[in-house]
Amino acid sequence: MLFKLAWRNIWRNKRRSFIVFISVIVGVNAMLFMDGMSNGMLSQILFNEISLNVSHIQIHKNGFTDNKMVQNYIPDYENVEKIIITNKSIRYYSKRIVTFGLLSSAANSTGIYLNGIEPEKKQNVSRIKSSIIEGKYLSGNSGEIVIGKKLAEKLQVELGDKVVALANTSDGSIGSDVFRIVGIYKSPSSEFDKSYVYIPITNAQTMLNLQNKIHEFAIITNNYNSANIIRDKLRETLSGSYEVLSYEDLLPFVIIQLDMYKESLFVINLIISLALIFGIINSMLMSVFERIREIGVLMSIGMRNGKIFLMILIEAFTIGTAGTIIGVISGYLINIPFSTFGINLSVFAQSLESFAVGAILYPKLSVENFVMILLMIPLISILGALYPAYKAIKLEPVYAIRYI
Amino acid sequence: MEIIKTENLKKTYKDNGVPVNALRGINLIINKGEHVVIAGPSGSGKTTLLNLLGALDKPTEGRIFFKGEDFSLKTKKELSDFRLRNLGFVFQAYNLIPVLSATENIEFSLMLLGIPEKERRAKSLKLLEELEIADLAYKRPGEMSGGQQQRVAVARAIVNNPKLVLADEPTANLDSKTGALLLDLMDKMNVEKNITFIFSSHDQLVIERAKRLLLLKDGLINDQNN
Questions:
Q1: Which neighbouring-strand residues pair with A183?
Q2: One digit per residue, pLDDT tens: chain B, 226 residues?
């Protein structure tokens, strides 16, 4: 009966209740929108970093990450490869040579990350092939190079032009080779495009005097969420001569940003909720004020203060919860086309590229935020009703009954 | 059997800072099953006395006993429970809950007593039939006339079988015919169910029907039957 009474009391003033209801829905949608945009952006950064270069797991000689010298190639890499092949959690892998170098054209020269790759395997662990905008991907023939669009602009080169790559070799001398640009790619990250170039692994090994040595295994697992578990298992299997790193180890800044975002999400939601709470307080105070006489009558026929208090809390909780549920459903439905087709932010494309975010942003809602909202808003509604409920039970029935 | 007893009951309240002695020492005994009318001019303290007898207010001085129990020893919570189990109220302005139907208004106190829904619904509907207003069962107060609302209010007041019903100017907002019908109904409840009724009124219709008349003047009572 209390719930029935509370529900009917809500609709005594339809306009007022509707306004509070709508404000809760709008507030929830705002929370979900912010979550979608922020989470989507960070997820895109993470995805781009993983898919362009980092992969899920990398294996190197121990200490390579801190000291990327050419001489720090993986010892006994055939054994490591056997372990990778037999691991059912690993979907794809490829071998890589990675080193710093210089790339020169007739017009200019610049520092680069030289990547020697196995083209047919690399395409499974990286999306460089799908990012080609001019020419073609490496075919594995000697003398081919693929560079980024920004780098091509900097070096003032085009498809078919020749460039010279220089780098330190394993014996301490300078190695160089001439390459013909067969493909130009464009990634979501302008910084990446300026720096990373790709040549066949055999060219790299020859140029750097590495014979058949490699610096890195790049691995894609069946599920990136279990990358850390697979990393730990590989560490157990391999000796201390190797370092096995997941994308979380390799992208600490991005991971920190994601963690910080999760913590700030609570604060952002709390701020929006506090704005809502004042609307609820105001609405419930008006509702109590309009029912002073009725509350006096309820007290006189024997309704205890506790039940009156509870009745008012139930009213606020009902509006808050109903608004939250509809807000969550509408927010989710509104998000579907945006997350499917993306939001075109090409106006900000240049800025976004420097953060490895593409011009099309795909909002992504998080389950944690849904749960947070479903718990927070009804709780906030109850908190907003505490003061009005307190005012109600402080009424003296003898005066309340006669209130006009 | 004595149901209500007051000893030197006084009530003073402040009106713009000026003390007003509404009741200046009321000594009263009301027995079970009595039909009592407290009459007096406007401002004589009738409502104040009724509020004190109904445990809605506390006296400035003096004591009130209900079946030997002293009100002043009860906490707010105990007084609330006491009203629920022992008293019924009929107000001048009906004071039905506007969002509840007639049946729901009537059974509200039964709900507070923890009586299961089926049982309280059956009781309410039976009472509506007894009071010949069964057709109003699912109507809300906004859909009823004043007389109908007051009949539902009487039903609400007696559904929990109270020992005492306090009716404050119950006919004030009704025409004479409707008022007479209402009083017939309350007389019937008084006789059939042996419920004690205390009215406060300056309506001649109510005063004429009093089995015991108490005149309130200048804060003091004059029992017309003594």
A1: A135, A146
A2: 889 999 999 999 887 888 888 899 999 999 999 999 999 888 888 889 999 999 998 899 999 999 888 888 888 889 999 999 999 999 988 899 999 999 999 999 999 999 999 999 999 999 898 888 899 999 999 999 988 999 999 999 999 889 999 999 888 888 888 888 888 888 888 888 889 999 998 888 888 888 899 998 888 888 766 5
On chain B, the residues whose CB falls within 8 A of the CB of A302 are 80-85, 87, 109, 112
CA A47 to chain centre: 8
DSSP calls for A65-132: TT---TT-PPTTHHHHHHHHHH-TTEEEEEEEEEEEEEEE-SS-EEEEEEEEE-HHHHHHH--TGGGE
A298 touches chain B (CB under 8 A): yes
ipTM of the complex model: 0.90
CB atoms within 10 A of CB A214: 24
**pTM, whole model, 2 decimals?**
0.77
Residues of B in contact with A297 (CB under 8 A): 89, 91, 95, 97
Distance CA A378, CA A273 (A): 10
Q: Where are the domains of chain A?
A: 2-49+254-400, 63-239
Structural domain range at position B62 = 2-223
Q: Are A129 and A123 in contact (CB under 8 A)?
A: yes
Residue showing tokens 């080193």:
A99
